[in-house]
Amino acid sequence: MEPRISVVTLGVTDLDRACAFYRAMGWPAPRRPDDEVAFFQANGLVLALWTGVGGRGAPGVELAYNVRGPEEVAPVLAAAAAAGGTVLRPAAVADWGGTSGAFADPEGYVWEVAHNPGWPIGADGSITM
């Protein structure tokens, strides 16, 4: 098995609302083969949103979105709030030496937005630890 993530699946209660949120955050239009699932291409992986009808519903998952500079954390949090998300933790210097904050999407999934100076981000969006 190769050490990578190919698909991250989030259970949602309202697929249209969830798709609208991610589109408002700048994600490309999803593929929606039916009314139960949507697939977003995200560089080298896929984000899937799946309803309780077709999938397992809305279990808790936390994800992270790393940015290239500390000044990028707050604007991402602001974009999330403008798209209908909730900022849970504003951008602040973290005890581990970076900058981070967090938001919840309309379904309650928590995303950390972080700049970690020890984890450079490649041109393709990949992170090197």
UniProtKB/TrEMBL annotation:
Pfam families named in the record: Glyoxalase
Domain VOC: 4-116
UniProt superkingdom: Bacteria
PANTHER family xrefs: BLR2520 PROTEIN
Protein name: VOC family protein
The species this protein was found in: Cellulomonas hominis
